[in-house]
Write a structure and sequence with these properties.
With about 100 residues, the protein is of the alpha+beta class. Helices cover about 45% and strands about 10% of the residues.
Length: about 100
Amino acid sequence: MTTQGEPRTESSTELRDAIQDLPPSAKLVAIVLEHNGTLTQRELATESLLPERTVRLGLDKLQEVGVVESRTSLQDARKRLYTLSVESTSKTPSSGDKH
């Protein structure tokens, strides 16, 4: 069981510094991505309990500061997948990543 009181690591601090001056909705979107990994805009809205428009604006802000990357979903080319570009301590890369 992980606790909320765990010390922050470099990557967590880097994320925190990058989003410090952003609106609260953008911060919430970043936190949801940090905890859940890659999500669609609709999934982000569901997880954060924010309206899709607010999520979209938050994602735009996060992309402007280089914290979030997006790519087209392989399952449905109409959807975009969003992920943190700042390494998160919650999610670790799989051992199958290329070097």
